[in-house]
Design brief:
CATH topology of the largest domain: Collagenase (Catalytic Domain)
Order of helices and strands: HHEHEEEEHEHHEHEEEEEEEEE
Radius of gyration: 21 Å
CATH superfamily of the largest domain: Collagenase (Catalytic Domain)
Number of domains: 2
Number of strands: 16
Oligomer: single chain
Strand content: 15-25%
Low-confidence stretches: 1-7
Bound molecules: zinc ion
CATH class of the largest domain: Alpha Beta
Largest sheet: 5 strands, mixed
CATH architecture of the largest domain: 3-Layer(aba) Sandwich
Distance between the termini: 56 Å
Length: 352
C-alpha cells in the first residue's frame, strides 16, 4: 500500500459528514436497550433495494467517468455478498440515495437510514473531487459505506487516539479542506459512543479511516509519524458489512393470517416472512413481546421487492404495528430486525 502523497506535506481532502440528528432517548431506557438503538438505528433491514440516482453528470468535478466510479463502488460492496441490493434509477424522486458532484462542497454522505430524512430533491451523497485517482476510488467506497450505516473509524473510541487538537484545527482550517472548527470537531476529534461502533476494536485499515500526516496523533505512539490513507475495503470492513447484511440464501418462511411466529433473534438479527394474502382487504401486522423492532413490508412488483411501509418502535413502549391493504395472491415480504428484548425476552410476529 502506498502512502497518499498529500500526507507527506499536509492533509488530503477529507470526507465531511453533515451533522446528524441524534435520537432523543428517554432517560429511563436500560443501557442495553439504549445501546442497541444507537448501534442499529442507522442500519437498513437486510434485503432492502437501495435505489440511487445522479443529480448531475459529474457537475464541475469531471465527466461521466465520475459516475462510473460511484457505480463501481456500489458494485464492489455488493460483490462482497451482502443481502442489500443497489439499483440505479433515472428519476431522483424514485431514489433513496441521490448523488451530486459539486467541487466546492467536498465529499460526504448521510449515514444509513438518515438518508430517508432528507428532502426528495436534495442530495444525500456528494463528491467534491476527482474519483478516478486511487484516492478518489477509495472516497467513493467510503461514502457508499456511510450510506450503508457506517461511521468514521478514526472516531472509534476503541482507537484510543489522543490528538494534538490545536494542530488538527489549524491543519484542517487550511487548504485543501478549509474547515471551520465545528466541522473538524464533528468529523475528526469527536469520539463516537462505544455503542455506535461494530465490534470492540479499532480497525486502522478500514476504508472509513482517514490518513493523517505526522504530528496530529500523539497517542498511540506508533502513529506519531502519521497513518496511511486506507485505499481499499479491508477484511474487517467485509466482516462487519456481512454481519449487518448477510447473504440472503434461505427463502422467507411463509406465514398464514393469525399464525404467530416466534422471533428467536439476538440483538441486530433479522427474521423474514413471506405473506401471500388469501383475500384483498386491510390487514394488520404486529410484533408482540417486550422488544424494540424495525419492521418493514415489501411487495413484489415485476420480480423486485419494493418498499410498501415500515415502522421503527425503538425506544417506545409499544410494538411494531403496520396497517395496510394487501392484495389477494400478491407476494409480500415482511422483515423484522430486532434491536433488543427485555422482560421475558420472548417476541413474536403475526398478521391478520
Ligand atoms: Zn466519511
Amino acid at each position: 500500500m502506498t502512502t497518499q502523497p498529500a500526507t507527506e506535506t499536509g492533509v488530503p481532502p477529507y470526507c465531511a459528514q453533515p451533522p446528524q440528528t441524534q435520537p432523543a432517548l428517554r432517560a429511563d431506557l436500560s443501557p442495553n436497550r439504549a445501546g442497541a438503538i444507537l448501534l442499529i438505528r442507522t442500519k437498513w433491514v437486510n434485503g432492502t433495494i437501495l435505489h440511487y440516482a445522479f443529480l448531475d453528470e459529474g457537475g464541475d468535478v469531471g465527466g461521466t467517468e465520475q459516475l462510473d466510479e460511484v457505480r463501481r463502488a456500489f458494485r464492489e460492496w455488493k460483490d462482497l455478498g451482502i443481502g442489500l441490493e443497489f439499483e440505479e434509477v433515472p428519476d431522483p424522486a424514485d431514489a433513496e440515495v441521490r448523488i451530486a458532484f459539486r467541487a466546492d462542497e467536498g465529499s460526504w454522505s448521510y449515514v444509513g437510514r438518515d438518508v430517508l430524512l432528507i428532502g426528495s430533491q436534495e442530495p444525500t451523497m456528494g463528491y467534491g473531487w476527482d474519483l478516478t485517482s486511487r484516492y478518489g476510488k477509495a472516497t467513493a467506497r467510503h461514502e457508499v459505506a456511510h450510506t450503508l450505516g457506517f461511521g468514521h473509524e478514526h472516531q472509534n473510541p476503541f482507537a484510543g487516539i489522543v490528538w494534538d487538537e490545536e494542530k488538527v484545527y489549524t491543519e484542517l482550517g487550511g487548504p485543501p479542506n478549509n474547515w471551520p472548527r465545528q466541522t473538524t470537531f464533528h468529523n475528526i476529534l469527536r469520539k463516537l459512543s462505544p455503542d455506535e461502533v461494530t465490534g470492540s476494536h479499532w480497525n486502522p485499515d478500514s476504508i472509513m479511516q482517514y490518513g493523517f500526516p505526522a504530528g496530529l496523533i500523539l497517542q498511540p505512539e506508533r502513529y506519531r509519524n502519521g497513518i496511511e490513507s486506507p485505499l481499499s475495503i479491508s477484511a474487517l470492513d467485509k466482516e462487519h458489512v456481512l454481519q449487518w447484511y448477510p447473504t440472503l440464501t434461505a427463502k422467507p418462511a411463509k406465514l398464514q393470517p393469525f399464525e404467530s411466529a416466534a422471533l428467536q433473534l439476538s440483538s441486530g438479527e433479522q427474521a423474514d416472512f413471506e405473506i401471500v394474502p388469501p383475500e384483498t382487504r386491510k390487514y394488520e401486522l404486529r410484533t408482540f413481546g417486550d422488544s424494540d423492532v424495525l419492521l418493514v413490508l415489501f411487495e413484489e412488483l415485476d420480480g423486485e421487492l419494493r418498499y410498501v411501509t415500515g415502522e421503527d418502535d425503538s425506544g417506545e413502549d409499544r410494538n411494531g404495528h403496520l396497517e395496510t391493504k394487501l392484495v389477494k395472491g400478491h407476494r409480500y415480504v415482511a422483515r423484522a430486525r430486532l434491536y433488543s428484548t427485555w422482560g421475558s425476552g420472548g417476541t413474536a410476529f403475526m398478521y391478520w
